[in-house]
Amino acid sequence: MEHQEEETNFDRLVAELQRQITEQERALYSAKVIEEAHNPTNLGRMAEPDAYGIVHGWCGDTIEVYLRLNGWRIREATFMTDGCGPSVACGNMLTRLVRGTSLEEAGEIKPEDLIAALDGLPEESLHCAELAVSTLRHALERYLGGQLRRGRDAASPTGRGDGSTGEAGEVVETGNAT
Ligand code: FES
């Protein structure tokens, strides 16, 4: 009986804490940010991606972007992050935005576009959007750089190509706090 009462009190405490956390989240973030952060559909590593980017932000968090291509179009995009809730929201929204776009269109996405797609971010989370977009650009640059090298090597007398960009390895650090 006493044990049951303790459990009920504990359940009440958990429910109250949950309610307070939800209230605080709603005060800070848009409904879209909360939805993308809590239910990310594109979170996860991709096996053998065509393009891969990883950027380590000044905040100490890292975002990775994985792309599967169909010619010059992005067929599938996923991400990983060890960062904050907004970084999950940014990674998820960004990978949703680029799916189906051409590489050129994806390269034109700016942090402001991502922030707008999320119905805004608080000032202290703006850099999370910058980190996500930098990671996407890193993936695109590595892929395009690899294609260029491949083209050059194919034209060279040895004909050697090493244009693969699917492997992890290079980590780009972003600049100062904005
Ligand atoms: Fe580092 Fe959000 S605080 S990505």
Q: In brief, what are we looking at here?
A:
Helix content is 51%, strand content 15%.
Description:
The protein has 178 residues and is of the alpha+beta class. It has a single domain, classed as Alpha-Beta Complex (Sufe protein. Chain: A), CATH 3.90.1010. It has six helices and four strands; from the N terminus they run H-H-E-E-E-H-H-H-H-E. Strands 3-2-1-4 form a four-stranded mixed beta sheet. The chain is elongated and about 80 Å long. About 6% of the residues have low confidence. The structure holds FE2/S2 (inorganic) cluster. The site of FE2/S2 (inorganic) cluster (FES) has 10 residues, from helix 3 and helix 6.
Which descriptors apply to this entry?
single chain; 178 residues; alpha+beta; Sufe protein. Chain: A; four-stranded mixed β-sheet; 6 helices; 4 strands; elongated
Q: Describe the biggest sheet?
A: 4 strands, mixed
CATH class: Alpha Beta
Could you say what the CATH topology is called? Sufe protein. Chain: A
Distance between the termini: 56 Å
**Stretches where pLDDT falls below 50 for ≥5 residues?**
159-168
Count up the helices: 6
pLDDT averaged over residues: 89
* CATH level-two architecture: Alpha-Beta Complex
Task: List strands and helices in order, with pairings.
Layout: H1 2-28, H2 31-38, E1 51-56, E2 62-70, E3 73-81, H3 85-98, H4 103-107, H5 111-117, H6 126-155, E4 172-173
Helix pairs in contact: 2-3, 3-6, 5-6
FE2/S2 (inorganic) cluster binds next to helix 3 and helix 6.
